[in-house]
Design goal:
By secondary structure, the protein is an alpha/beta fold. It contains nine helices and five strands. A hairpin with a 5-residue loop joins strand 1 and strand 2.
C-alpha cells in the first residue's frame, strides 16, 4: 500500500523541495512503515533544535535517513548540519545567476531531457572548466545553482537526477581537486540520495591520477552510482537508461544541448 508523505515544501530551490504540496510516492519506491516511523522521530528531534525544519517535507527527511541507513541519530545530525548550511549559504532560498558569472561564462554545463524513469539529465564538459583565482566560493555557489535547475525539472514524486561528464580533451589545466571535493561534499552532505547515476565518458589517463586523489572522498553510496564508460560503448551504454529522443545529439540522440542558464 502506498503512503502519502507530509509534503510541506521549502522555498529553497536546491532540489530539497518538491513540486506540489502533497506528492504520492512512486509505486516503485513506496515508503515503508519503518521509514515513516523514523521520519517522525527525526522530525520530532530536529524541530526541537531548529524550528525552521517544520518547513521541510517528509521526502527530504527520508533522503537523509536513507543516506545514513535509517539511523535516526545520524540522520538527525546530518539534517541539522544541512539546515545550518542552508541558513548561511543560501539565505534567500536560491543562488541567482548574477552570483556565478565566471562559471557560467565557461559554457560547460547543459541541462535537458530525462532518462527512462523521468530523472532530469545534465551534461558537463570537463575540458571547459578552469580553476579561477580565489574562485572556490563562486564554484560552490555554481554547484548549488546547478542543483536548483535540476530540481526545477523534476516531476512530482521524482527525487533523483542523472549526470553525464564528458572528459574528452581534459588536461591538467582543467584539474580542480579542491573544486571536485567541494562539489562532492555539497552533493553528499546537503543533497543526499539525489544522484541517480553519473556516467563518466572519455576519461584520459591523466585524469585517473586526479581521480585517485578524489576517490577517498566519495562515500560508498555515491561510488555505486558512478560508471566509467568504455569509449567504444558510449551510445550503447547511455541508451540503456536514456531513450534516443532524450539523448544529446553529440551522443547519437535527438536533443540539442541547452545551456543551464537557458534551461
Amino acid at each position: 500500500m502506498e503512503t502519502v508523505l507530509n509534503m510541506q515544501g521549502s522555498e529553497l530551490q536546491d532540489c530539497n523541495k518538491e513540486s506540489e504540496a502533497h506528492t504520492r510516492v512512486d509505486a516503485i519506491d513506496v515508503v515503508t512503515e519503518t521509514e515513516l516511523n523514523k521520519i517522525r522521530l527525526v522530525r520530532d528531534f530536529v524541530e526541537t533544535h531548529d524550528p525552521s525544519s517544520k518547513e521541510e517535507d517528509d521526502l527530504m527527511i527520508r533522503r537523509f535517513l536513507r543516506a545514513r541507513d535509517l539511523d535516526v541519530q545520524k540522520a538527525s545530525a546530518m539534517f541539522l548540519k544541512y539546515l545550518k548550511w542552508k541558513h548561511s549559504f543560501v539565505p534567500n532560498g536560491s543562488i541567482p545567476l548574477s552570483e556565478v558569472p565566471n562559471e557560467i561564462a565557461d559554457d560547460k554545463i547543459f541541462v535537458q531531457g530525462h532518462d527512462k524513469i523521468g530523472r532530469p539529465i545534465f551534461v558537463v564538459f570537463g575540458a571547459r572548466h578552469f580553476q579561477k583565482k580565489d574562485g572556490l566560493d563562486e564554484f560552490k555557489r555554481f554547484v548549488v545553482y546547478i542543483f536548483g535547475k535540476l530540481c526545477a525539472k523534476m516531476a512530482p514524486g521524482q527525487e533523483k537526477f542523472v549526470g553525464i561528464v564528458e572528459l574528452k580533451g581534459w588536461g591538467y589545466s582543467n584539474s580542480h581537486i579542491r573544486g571536485y571535493i567541494s562539489a562532492l561534499s555539497i552533493l553528499q552532505d546537503y543533497y543526499p540520495e539525489r544522484l541517480g547515476k553519473l556516467f563518466i565518458l572519455h576519461a584520459p589517463y591523466i585524469f585517473m591520477k586526479v581521480w585517485k586523489i578524489v576517490y577517498p572522498f566519495i562515500d560508498n553510496k555515491t561510488r555505486k552510482k558512478i560508471e566509467f564508460v568504455e569509449n567504444k560503448k558510449v551510445k550503447s551504454t547511455l541508451v540503456e537508461e536514456i531513450d534516443e529522443s532524450q539523448l544529446p545529439q553529440i551522443y547519437g540522440g535527438k536533443l540539442q544541448l541547452v545551456a543551464i542558464q537557458d534551461s
